[in-house]
Amino acid sequence: MGTPDQPSLFEPDPNEPLTKTPGTRTERMRVLITVKAAPNPSETYGETVCVAGIRIDQIPHRWIRLYPINFRELDNPRKFHKYDIVSLEARPAVADPRPESYRPVLDTVRSEKKLVGWSRRKPFIIDHVQASMCEVLTAVRDHPPARSLAAIRPRLVKDLEIRPHGGWDPSEQAKIDRYVRQEDLLSTGLRTALEAPRFKGWYRYLCQSPNCKGHRQGIYDWEWVALQRRFSHLDDVALTATLRRNFFDQMCGPAYDTVFYVGNQKKHQNVFMILGVFYPKR
Ligand SMILES: [Zn+2]
Fold it and tell me: Minimal CB count within 10 Å: which of 11, 97, 237, 273?
């Protein structure tokens, strides 16, 4: 690894097999939220966000995915942010073979506190940082279902590709239209359609495997979309420059110890996406 890390008491044993608690019993848990992905059209839930983090009520700490969560429909006291420590009840997601996947009980979600500043977050994250994306991919190919969430410290971030999003595809748009049309008995306002961001992005990088031929992974980070919304008044050239300045020049710049949070798709477990970036100062 590029930076020597001080392992903590909660370090996971890399040889321990990943397991999900058998059955569907609801468990109470505390999770440090590290990943909030961009909202995505969903057939059943309208628009959903994949949230992931580190479960800290058990030792060793371990990755957990919480799905589905619809942030727009979450009551205000239940809304939470990245790097909040959240308590909730959740049960193993039986329809999802990935060992980290749990289904949250949304009305039990409580945000306990916020970890402000990288130095307070780092002790929880460093134990889970891995050097090799290539090894994560080999495991899902050879021994599925394998690890589906990871934190990868790249050897070299070669580029950030930015291209026009082009809008939702027809099946995604149909899901959004159905969701907006549904009568919502709980909500007082009308549902508004989820807008596609103007630009998609991909990181191209080398992991630390000696034989790495390079990875190209799409960015599905909430902040990628939020930044575009915040600067929606800019024209395409200026908005692209803003995305590049933030997501490449800054987050992957020499002053920062860049780590990518990655996760795969349930249907295509060999396809990993960038779900967020952890970038404390070196
Ligand atoms: Zn690699």
Answer: 237
Q: If you measure from the C-alpha of residue 129 to the centroid of ligand 1, how many angstroms do you get, rounded to a whole number?
A: 14
Pairing verdict, β 149-152 and 259-264: antiparallel
124-141: pLDDT as tens digits? 999 999 999 999 999 999
The yes-or-no verdict on residue 186 having pLDDT over 70 is no
CA of 257 to the centre of ligand 1 (A): 18
Tally the domains of the chain. Answer: 2
Q: Tell me how far the alpha carbon of residue 190 lies from the centroid of ligand 1, in angstroms.
A: 46
pLDDT bracket for residue 46 (50, 70, 90): confident
User: Is 113 in the same domain as 137?
Assistant: no
The range of the structural domain enclosing residue 34 comes to 28-122
Examine the domain organization and report whether 39 and 151 are in the same domain.
Answer: no
Helix (H, G, I), strand (E, B) or coil at 214: coil
CB-count burial class (<10 Å; 0-12, 13-18, 19+) for 131: middle
pLDDT at 240 over 60: yes
The answer to whether residues 200 and 74 belong to one domain is no
Residues 147 and 113 in one domain: no
- Under DSSP, is residue 230 helix (H, G, I), strand (E, B) or coil? helix
Last residue of a domain, one of 99, 122, 145: 122
Q: What are phi and psi of 105, to 5 degrees?
A: -95, 105
Residue 267 CA, ligand 1 centroid: distance in Å: 22
Please give the distance, rounded to the nearest whole angstrom, from the Cα atom of residue 154 to the centre of ligand 1: 8
The rounded Å distance from CA 32 to ligand 1 centre is: 27
Check residues 21 and 117 and name the one with the higher pLDDT: 117
Residues 101 and 224 in one domain: no
Determine the distance separating the centroid of ligand 1 and the alpha carbon of 212, expressed in angstroms: 4
pLDDT at residue 17, as a whole number: 60
Q: What is the pTM of this model?
A: 0.90
From the CA of 132, how far away is ligand 1's center (Å)? Answer: 6
Last residue of some domain: 88, 122, 156? 122
